[in-house]
Structures are given as C-alpha cells and as structure tokens.
C-alpha cells in the first residue's frame, strides 16, 4: 500500500514543503473551474487550482509598459474552515504546540488526510483529523470532514465555515506587479439553516460562478444542534456554528461544497444548480464511497503496475494522479486545454503551450474520449490561428505559443529575471513549432483510435491548415537549392536570436524544419486517404489546389536541415559558430546553473552567444520518432542518417545542456533508453523527482510541471515497452530497465481493452471480450491478429 | 432550378401568409442562440428564431395558478432596418401602393430575397430588393443587404439600423398570459463610426448576449459617406445614416451582424467577440460567397434528388433545409437538443420532446457527428432523469416528456383550450415512452456509425439506465402471469385517463409496453458485447447485478400486450370498452376536426370516452420496426403476430384518428407504403403539406413541425429504399412509389460515403474511396462486401 500514498510527518512552519504543493486536489472540472485552497490551519499556503477565464483587458503597468494578464482565478477558499475553543484564538498551527503531525495523500482514493495533535496556550490538548476530497464522479462537488477530539478538556467549540470570494492571485512572486484581483462579488445568501452561497463574476471574462456550502456537525453520526450565526461582507459569507464538546468524544464537522459556473452545460442558472448540487448531495461518507469507487475504476484503467522499489511506483502514480486531476472525464465536456502547470498554480497564468504533446500519448491509450476533447479545444481555436497566420504574412493556421482563452497569442513580451530584477525582452513567442506538436497529437490520436469521424471532420482540416502554414513559412533558397525556415525559435528557449543580429529569430532550427517536413508528409498521406466528398469540401473551403500539394511534396524532399558535422545535427544554422560555455566557471560561482539564461543576462551577457541549451531540441526528434521513421524522413530529404549517430548527438548535446526545462532530462532518458540503459535510468529517476523534490527550487509551488510528469509516465508506457503504431500495426518491443522486474498495464486501442504483462522473460498480451474488429500486433518482425478474448505469450 | 426555390408573389397584408412563416433563416447556432426577425417593412410578423435559456423562476399567474415558463428568447431584432425618403414616414408596406412583390427563399444558397416595387403617398416610385443570410459557415454572423433604386425621383434617404433588445415573446396567442419579457438590458455602445453594440442578459438564466452591427452604404460598390447619428435608449441602439440618392441609381445598404453569448466556447468575453466578429468579417458579397459554398457542400451531402413533379422535390428540400437550420455543424459544439418546433417559433417554449426520434434517422446517415452531439445533450441530462425516476419511485432514468434547459420536467400542468378559453388539466407528462425513443436513437446511431467509444462511454450507460427504468415501472401481475405498465400515457395525447377513473394514466399502452421490451432486449444484448472493463465499471456504479438482468430477461418474455381481437393490437388495456365516435356529427358541426380533444372538452365532454386518436400510437410500432423485428419481439412474448395483420391494424386505427398530430399522416404513409401504395402516397403528399399549407390552420407561424418535416425526408430516405441495418448488414429493399421515377442520395455509413441511385429497374451502389474497413450490403437475401471505390448495380 505504501506506493499508493504520499506521506510526510514533518511540520516545518518556516518553509513551504514541496510535497505539500503536490497534494492539491482537483478533478478536472473543479480544477479548471474552481479552487481547492484549504486555510483551515493558517498553515502553509496550499497552491490552489485555477480557472483561466480569458485575457484581462484591465492591463497592469509593468516597468512602464502595459502587460495584459489572463483572468486566471484562484477561486474562493471553498475549504475555508476554522475553529476555536471557548472563545480563544482561532486555531493556528503556528501558535500551538504540535505534538503529532501527519499528512497523507491517498492516491488510490484521491483523499487528503491530515492528522494534527496539539496543545494550545491554555494547555488544552486536542486531536484534529481532516479529510478532504474533490469528487471525481460528481464533478461539481467537494467536501471536507473534520474530526475533533478533546483529549483533556470539555467545552464549547466554535467553527467558522466560509466561502471567500476575496481571494487574489499571489502564488507567483514575480507576477506581483500584475493584477491579482479577478473576481467581482455579486451576492451572498443564506439558503437555509445549513447552506450558504456566494456568487461572483470574473472581472474581464464575465463568467458567473456560484458556490454553495452545507456545514453540519455530528456526534456519533447523529447531527447535533449547533447555534448558527451568519456573517456576510462583500464577496464573503461565513457561518459560525457553536456547540459543546466532551473530553474523549469525537465531534465531526462536514462541509459539502457545490460549484457551478455560467459555462457549464445542462444548467438552468449557476446559483440554482450550485444550491441543488449541495442540497441533493449525500453526506461525507456517501460522497467518499462514490468518489473512491470512481478512483478505483480510474486506476484500473490508468495504473502502471511496476515490480520495483516502491519509490518509483509511488511517484509514477503521483504523476498519473496529477494528470487525472488536470484532465479527466470531468473535463471532456468543458472547453479546456492542458495547461503547462496543470490548474495547480498561477505560473504561466493558465496559458496552453505545447506541453500537451507529452500528455497525449498517455491519454490516447487510456482515455481516448478525453484526448479527443483536447483536440477539439484546438479545433475551436483554428479560426484564431488562421488569423494569426494571415496577420504574420503566412497561410494556413499558426497556433500561438501561449494560447489564451480565445486562442489568441498570449506570450509575454517581457519576462522578469529574478536574478537581476530586470524585465527582459522575451521573444519566445517565435516558437512556431507548436502547430507541429498539435499535428503530431492529431496523428497519434487517430492511430490509437481510428476515429474516422473525428479525422474526417476536424483532424483533417487542422492538419491541412498546419501543413499550409509550414509550406508558406518555408522559403526556397535558390543558392542552396533547399527550402528554409527563417526567423523562428526552437523549443530550446535559451536561443532566440543570433548574437550578431539585432533581429529576433534563428534560421533553420533542425527540430522545426524536420517537424515541418513530417507534418507535410502526413498531410499528403491523409489527403490520399480522405473520402472524395470531404476532400472536395476541404479543398474548396481552404482554397487548396494541386499546385499547393506539389509544393508540399517538394518541401518534403528539399527542406534544409543543418549539420555540424557528419551525423551531428545542428540545433540551428550557425549553431557551431557559438562559443562553448565555460561550465566550471559558472558551477563554481553559482549553486544552480539550470537557468543559465537568467545568470548570463544578470551578468549583462546572453545565452545567445553560447552553446548552452535549456533543453536540446535536436533530441526531441529521437524522442518523437523511431529510428525507422527518422531514416525515412532524412533519406527522402537526401541526407544520410545512421542510427549509430543517435548516441553521438545525445553526447554532443548532453554536454551543452543546463536542463533548465523539466522536459530536458525526460528526453535524455528516452533517447538513451536502449543505447545507455544505466544513464537512461538515472535520468529517468531525476526526471521523476522534478516536482517531488522541486529540483528547480521553488517552481513546484507555482504549479506542477505536467508535461514532465506525463513524460515519465510515457517513458514507462511507451519507451520501455517499445509500444508504437506503425503502418496500422501495434508493435511491441520491450526492453525493461534492469531495475524494473515487471510491468502490468492496460490500454485502450481501437476499441479494445488490451492487458499487457511485461517482464524480462515474456510479454503476455490479453484481449478483453468486446465488439471491436480484430487488430494486428507486431512483435519481432512478425504480425499477429488479435480479437476478443485472445491471449498470447511472447518469449523474449 | 424551380425545385430549389420557394417563391410567392402575393402580398396579403391582412393575413399572415403561411409560407412566410417558413422562410425564417437560421444556421443552428444563430437559431439556438439568437433571432432572425426582419422588421424592415412593418409587414407581416416573421417568426423569429429562438434561444431556450432555462426555465423561468419568475413565474406568471395563469388562471390563479403559477405557471413557470422557459427563458425562451426571441432575441433582438438584429435585422431591424428601416428607411424613409426626405423626412417622410418610415417605409411601411401597409402605407404604400405595392406595384410589385416577390419573396423568394433560395434553398440552395440559404438566402431570402424580397423584391418590392412601391409608390409612396408623394408619388415617389422606388424599387427595394433585400437579401439576407444567416451565415452557415461563420456561425456568429448574419447579414442583410438592401438595394434601393429611386425610379422617378432623387433626394435624401435616411436609414435606421438598430439592434433592439426590447423585443418580447408574443408569437403564440395562447401564451399571452405568460411572461414574454426575457431580456434585461445591460448596455449599448457605439464601437466606431460604423459599428454599434447591444449587450443584454436573460432574466432567469443569466446568459449574457452581445450583438454588434456594422452598417455601410455603397454606391457602385464604393462606400459613400453618410451622415451618422446614434440614438440609444435602454436595451436599444440605432444608427441613422442619411445620404443622397439619384434617380435610377441604386444605393446599397449592408448590415453585418455578430452574435455571441456567454455560453460560447473559445471566447474571451461575448461583447469583445461580437465586436471582433463584425470588424473582421468581409462585406456582404464576401459573406455570400462563403455562405453559398457551405450550403452547396451541405446539399451535396444531404440532398435527396428525385425525378418527379418538382413540387414534392421542392417541399422535401424545404424540409431538409429546416432540419439544417435547426441543427447543423454549428450546433455540434452547443449544448442544444432538437426542439419540437425547431428554433422557429415560441410554441412549446423551446422544450425538447421525443420528436428527435423522427430527425435522427436522417442525421445518422448524413451528419453523424451532429447526431452524436444530440445524444450527448441527453447524456448530460442523465443525472436529472435519474433524479426524476427516484422521485417518482422508480429506478434508472426517467427522461421528461418536456425537457427544460437543465433536463428537468417542464410539461405544463394546464393547457389553454382556445375553443373554450379554459385552462384544462394536462396529464400528458405521463408519457414515459420518451426514454424508449432515446434508447432507439442511441441504437440507430450506433448501428449507422459503429462509434464504439460513444457506445461504451455514454450510450451504454444511458441504455442501461433507461432499461432499468422500464424494469422498475413494470409490475408483475400474478393473476395474468404477465408484467404490466400502469398509469402512463401513450403518444396519442387524446387519451390520458379512463373515463371511469379519477386518476390520470392508462394501463398497458401497447406502444409503451412493446418499446419497453425492445429496450430491455437491446440493453441485454449490449451487456453481452460490452468489454469487461466497462461492464464492471457500469455495474458497480449503477449497482446492477445478475438478478437485475434476469428480471429484464423475464420481462422480455412476459410483458403483457393487450389485443382487441386476434391480430388487432389494443392501444391500451380496455380501449375496446370506449365508445365509437360519431364522426359525421362532428364533421357537420365543425370545419376542422383535427383537434377533437379541444372540441370535446369545449363541449364539456372528453376524448377519454371515445375511440378517437390524435395519432394512432399502435402504428408507431410498424413505423419503427420491420416485420422481422416485430415478429421476433411478439414471438418471444408468446403472442401470435402475422405480417398480414399490419394492414388490419392500419385500417382499424385510421378510421379512428383525427390526425391531430402532424406526425399522424406520416406514420400512416410509412406503414402503408408496401401494402397500399396509393393511399400511402396520398398520405405522404398530405404530410408534406403540413407546414407548407399550414394544415392545422395557424400553428406553422408558431413554429414549424420539425418531426413531421423530418419524417417526410425519412420516408424517402429509408422507407422507399428499404434501408435498414440488421445484424450488422445494411439492407436495401427499394420500392419507389409509382410517382417517383428515380432517387439519388448519398449516405455516410460506418465511415464510408455511399452513393445510391434507385429507380424502378435498378439500384446502383457506389462507394467513395476512403480509409474505412469494408462493410456488408444486403439485397434480396444475399450479402455483398463493399470497400473503397466499389460499385455494383442490382437489378430489380
């Protein structure tokens, strides 16, 4: 059971423990809609879960310039619950003597439990056990339960149960100059003797949000009468319940909370629905039962069961847990994407980046309906991406680097460097590669599901428009007789321009150019397969003709890819002209050189001058494509590509990376998994710790790094198993690390549930009964047909 | 081309022409979100398109009782456009001499064109040609164009272009006691010198809606300068444009309108988006081009091309046109269902009934993504249906007869009888059969698409819950040794209780009982095919066990079905005890006996005493099921069923029906299509005219009868072709009416586009290229496999 729980027993008031930051609860809906901030103990600031509600026209002045920020809302303290004994001080962890402290995140059931034994200044000893959940099935509900047991006293207890709409965003220090007040209070209301309600509206996006809370006190599972009093002020309502407690007799306080917004489907009006939700909900125990059942079912689908030291298993589950808190069945019907930091903290203000690239592989195989809905999030923003392309002088669709609520580019133009206190120019918006990631996700989703209706009606249109963008940004260089893509930035954000140039952007970023080729090729393949009806529709509507396709075809043969020397791909053109970093010098000077960009800029220098990477984007190619695929792409382009050059590239770039991105180690681990298993496992272990140990020193509490979390899950699910869909066949090619004895998992593939058992000797494949057509599974050059109920064991 | 246009040249001021009522434009989005009321000419009231926004807690007093009504909104007069010459009266069709009048609904392009030649009181002759569209691709846009040509004068023209948020609901006389003011004005704004804006909120549901309008005047396609003035009052903004016009020189006024609501996806804030929409839109001609292209593509998919007199073809296209105005690609992403009267009028206040049963067959085969989204509309309301079942003492899900915005029962409890002026008690809410219709739609959608993910994750859950409801409402009668369903109402709403009873509800309505059996059988089949993973999930969650399944199985063998005599199914138990109607007596006394219920009630009598049907619900069984299927159901139940009894049943009930429902003739036409082709064709022709000729005398202007419209389309698509999916095979069994020479159509079936040509000699089947797996087509006992590009001609 240990691998199902994240436990820590240490209470360190002066420090905000990182693992606390990981224990926020959401359920997708609640996460993307509301907040989960528990202020019961005046203790550490628990990062909330957030709601992105459109960019904020109410701009803030930053360093003399106007900066817009999203209506990202850390919603009301729904778990605001306080108590005091005999009119004393309100309970505060910092003002009592802690004699016992245990915090336990139960991943299996999605419950956070805290046990605090304490003695107050009057010498009264009490035991407080709190449990809370954000309901995984009934997505509009959350609940907290307190058990208070007086150990050496009897007397009056007063509980304050509030809904607080005056919360502001203050979770990220360097955003302190941005506006943090996103809520406009509308009204508060006492619904009945148990229920209170708060209704607010977001300031810019005008989303109406209603929250209702029902608080009840129990003794021996019977409700006990308590004196009730209500306090209301603007944007805040609290209910005070006073009752008597006896020594050694546990009283239980339950607070059930309902949340609805004006963006919910199937509602009449949010306030009415929030009230209904709470009044119709059962008590804490009922909710716990249904919540636990839902988690059990989710784990049955999504768990990766390892035979290994329990530490890896536990963190892996924590990562799966956080994926499911950000996106789940509860978000399928919401128009939300995958934010880089989950809905877990304020960093990046809820914007949607390319990070979903790392989350899709998991979702495609576990919750394909969810993956579909995330692609629809992009599809809905296709018109805005088209407009962005047109405005930048291109055709097709140019998806933004940081996507705001309506799909417009929301990348900051300035970035606060905490090292120097300066606001530096930020040209990372030139990362045009995000569209390629979306195309990749569409392709992968389709391969895993064969969802023809999706592909025909939405996927194809996106794919064509993204392909067109690449075709239009690629320019023919007659001297070189190659197409080029100039003036962009790759995933490695340390490099945004040439040191000898005053214009931002780099030329021929290898990752970008190869991805562009891949997208064009996939678009061409797709056109061949598309039905005539749909093809005619799309070609008419998008004004695509055969000459356009000919150009695509030509680009897939003639795109320029820079090389440093034979086999070593150049991150971008003229990368080799940059200076080598004197790593020793900086390692001596600074404890942590992960963010070399900030260090160099603070010294008046710039990473643009050096061969130093936040992450080595060349290696992303080895992460995304198998050797077979890369060979095909490069050969078609007329470049030599030998599988043996992969480790050379890895070595070259590993030396030159500061791992300033949490994604960096992940990619290393993946690409080395077969060539250098020891180093790969080490990198994997480090990647696992990104958030768990907060390796960046403080960024975890600003929000988890969901891409990195999902990436570790993906390494186990796809890299160690060699799971790959190629030419309509699901290939397996397992190579478990020595440290991993076995791996059990289930995947959903083209309408089948397939159970896998991998160990160092065999692979066992079992198909559940079901009504899907047979599919093919490939193992060591041979292809086998599987249908319902089939089982086969392959020897390694 | 004639069959593509609905044209009428007659201007009848004192009467509201029915065909005018058919010319409202929507596009799904605009329909379900906004309104399309043109008041340019002070002429006939054009029914608008509406928005259902939750039930209205602001109840109205009706006949001493409180009645709730939906926030159904006839939204702002977005096409409010007036003009006057030289400070004269504002143009009013009733105050000028009409010398030419032509109204033309171009079905092919979705454009309404009106030509009016007139002479005003000062003898000035002018020609006014207006065209309008609600954009089928850019769903947030609509546009109107006016061409004004002075024939014998030159002078000043003043145009008033307004957005009017003060509109109220007044389209249905008998609702006049209900509140009609659903909008609360928020603000008006002049955005720039061309754009004005109105923002309102619905009163109960608090939906924020923003509308922006850009009005420009052109001469020779060049914008001309006009003096502009703005008038604002609460909920209303108008722009006055004054310019000079010359004799014989046409001036053109364009008004482009954008509409967004707070329920839209991918937005920042509705007002901002509505502004953006209008400012980014091209001019009228641009919009016309993209709008026409979209319609062309839609028709390519959806048209049924007949070789026949053009009248049938034209009305059939009008019906397809109206289906697509109510639901289209633009509604897929909205949480909206299929309202009985489209979004076309105020009747039934936007509630969702079982009528979608008649619309699904068409959508399944033409726009399966849309069909899926309509099923999701029901899925989202499953929790409310569960609650309704529990509250009524049943298990599972009991979907409401009239479904309100959040899925709660919204059936009226009183119904105004226009014959008597009395508010009669209305027990039609006891129509529990709506859940069976939903199950039927799920099944049909799945058969047409094999959408496994939908079925597994949503469809199965609904199907199980609906099955459970039937199981729990069915009671074992030990005397009869049969299960019974007591206290319900069938689709024939004339009968709601026994004349000798004071309790509403009838026992053993044959349609309901057979449907219950069918649902239980389908649910049992589905359980067998469901993957183990999903089965365990659902059984745990819904608390279903094997004993429940055994009960279902038993009901499918032991349900009671009443018979009048051998072969003649009894509409409900003891139907035969009712009195025969003296039709002659009433036909002499009343012009129109379609609504015998109102006639009898006004006479102090009740249809409950007589063998008289609004529609013969027994015949619905022959409509929904093939002979083979019915045989199986009845044999399993231990009842004899001979195909030869079908015409006998038809005869029996045809004599006893007043066709008070527009669905009635439809069903007759279908069930007689093979046994009595002449009568079937006649009934079909009558069904075609339901709205076109407003056979109910005034109900068309309260909203089209979408179920009846779709049903006529379905008769052509499925009944004349014998298209039926049975055991995974798509069977065709064509029998065109003699009057129909040939029929061409395309369907989307399991990822394929299939082109059909039917005539009296052959059937030609052509598969488009595509990437879907092969499927089977059955013809005369033989099954053929078809894959991409295959073509085959069958001789008849």
UniProtKB/TrEMBL annotation, chains A, B:
Keywords: Glycosyltransferase, Hydrolase, Transferase. The keyword Transport does not apply. Residues 317-713 form the Glycoside hydrolase family 65 central catalytic domain. The active site is at 493 (proton donor). Residues 8-263 form the Glycoside hydrolase family 65 N-terminal domain. Substrate binds at residues 354-355, 614-615. It holds the Pfam family Glyco_hydro_65m. Residues 723-785 form the Glycoside hydrolase family 65 C-terminal domain. One of its GO terms (biological process) is carbohydrate metabolic process. Belongs to the glycosyl hydrolase 65 family. This is Trehalose and maltose hydrolase (Possible phosphorylase). It comes from Tangfeifania diversioriginum.
């Amino acid at each position: 059971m240990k691998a199902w729980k994240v436990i820590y027993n240490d209470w360190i008031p002066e420090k905000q423990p990182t693992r606390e930051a990981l224990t926020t609860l959401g359920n997708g809906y609640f996460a993307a809609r509301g907040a989960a901030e528990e202020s019961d103990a005046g203790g550490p600031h628990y990062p909330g879960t957030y709601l992105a509600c459109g960019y904020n026209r109410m701009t803030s002045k930053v360093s003399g310039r106007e900066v817009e920020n999203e209506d990202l809302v850390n919603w009301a303290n729904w778990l605001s619950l306080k108590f005091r004994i005999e009119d004393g001080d309100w309970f505060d962890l910092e003002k009592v003597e802690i004699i016992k402290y245990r915090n336990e995140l139960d991943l299996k059931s999605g419950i956070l439990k805290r046990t605090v034994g304490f003695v107050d200044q009057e010498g009264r000893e009490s035991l407080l056990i709190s449990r809370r959940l954000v309901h995984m099935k009934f997505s509009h509900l959350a609940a907290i339960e307190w058990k208070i047991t007086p150990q050496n006293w009897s007397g009056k207890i007063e509980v304050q149960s509030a809904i607080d709409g005056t919360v502001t965003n203050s979770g990220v220090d360097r955003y302190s100059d941005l506006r943090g007040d996103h809520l406009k209070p509308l009204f508060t209301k006492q619904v009945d003797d148990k229920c209170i309600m708060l209704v607010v509206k977001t300031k810019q996006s005008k989303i109406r949000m209603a929250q209702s809370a029902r608080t009840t006190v129990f003794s021996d599972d019977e409700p006990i009468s308590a004196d009730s009093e209500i306090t209301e002020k603007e944007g805040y309502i609290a209910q005070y319940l006073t009752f008597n407690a006896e020594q050694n007799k546990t009283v239980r306080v339950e607070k059930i909370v309902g949340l609805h917004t004006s963006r919910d489907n199937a509602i009449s009006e949010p306030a009415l629905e929030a009230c209904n939700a709470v009044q119709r909900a059962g008590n804490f125990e009922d909710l716990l039962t249904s919540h636990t059942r839902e988690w059990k079912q989710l784990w049955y689908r999504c768990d990766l069961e390892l035979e290994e030291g329990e530490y890896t298993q536990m963190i892996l589950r924590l990562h799966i847990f956080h994926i499911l808190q950000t996106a789940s069945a509860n978000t399928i019907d919401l128009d939300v994407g995958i934010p880089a930091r989950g809905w877990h903290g304020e960093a990046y203000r809820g914007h949607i980046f390319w990070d979903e690239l790392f989350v899709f592989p998991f979702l495609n195989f576990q919750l394909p309906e969810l993956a579909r809905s995330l692609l629809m999030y992009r599809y809905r923003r296709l018109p805005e991406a088209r407009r962005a392309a047109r405005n930048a002088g291109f055709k097709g669709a140019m998806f933004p680097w940081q996507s705001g609520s309506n799909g417009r580019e929301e990348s900051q133009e300035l970035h606060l460097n905490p090292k120097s206190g300066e606001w530096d120019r930020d040209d990372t918006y030139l990362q045009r590669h995000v569209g390629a990631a979306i195309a990749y996700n569409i392709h992968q989703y389709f391969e895993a599901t064969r969802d023809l209706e999706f592909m025909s009606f939405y996927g194809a249109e996106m794919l064509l428009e993204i392909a067109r963008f690449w075709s239009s940004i690629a320019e023919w260089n007659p001297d070189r007789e190659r197409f080029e893509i100039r003036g962009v930035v790759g995933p490695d954000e340390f490099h945004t321009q040439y040191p000898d140039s005053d214009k931002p952007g780099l030329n021929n970023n290898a990752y970008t150019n190869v991805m562009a080729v891949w997208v064009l090729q996939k678009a061409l393949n797709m056109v061949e397969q598309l039905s005539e009806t749909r093809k005619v529709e799309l070609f008419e509507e998008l004004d695509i003709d055969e000459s356009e396709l000919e150009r695509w075809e030509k680009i897939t043969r003639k795109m320029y890819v820079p090389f440093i020397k034979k086999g070593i791909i150049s991150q971008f053109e003229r990368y080799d002209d940059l200076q080598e970093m004197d790593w020793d010098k900086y390692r001596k000077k600074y404890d942590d050189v992960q963010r070399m960009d900030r260090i160099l800029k603070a010294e008046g220098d710039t990473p643009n001058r050096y061969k130093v990477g936040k992450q080595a984007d060349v290696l992303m190619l080895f992460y995304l494509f198998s050797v077979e695929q890369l060979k095909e792409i490069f050969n078609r382009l007329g470049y030599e590509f030998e599988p043996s050059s992969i480790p050379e590239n890895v070595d070259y770039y590993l030396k030159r990376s500061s791992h300033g991105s949490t994604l960096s180690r992940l990619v290393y681990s993946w690409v080395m998994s077969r060539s250098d298993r020891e180093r790969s496992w080490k990198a994997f272990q480090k990647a696992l710790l990104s958030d768990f140990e907060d390796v960046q020193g403080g960024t975890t509490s600003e929000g988890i790094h969901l891409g990195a979390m999902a990436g570790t899950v993906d390494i186990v699910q796809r890299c160690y198993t060699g799971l790959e869909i190629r030419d309509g066949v699901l290939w397996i090619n397992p190579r478990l690390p020595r440290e991993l004895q076995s791996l059990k998992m289930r995947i959903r593939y083209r309408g089948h549930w397939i159970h896998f058992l991998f160990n160092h000797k065999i692979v066992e494949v079992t198909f559940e009964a079901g009504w899907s057509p047979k599919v093919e599974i490939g193992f060591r050059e041979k292809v086998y047909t599987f249908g319902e109920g089939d089982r086969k064991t392959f020897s390694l």
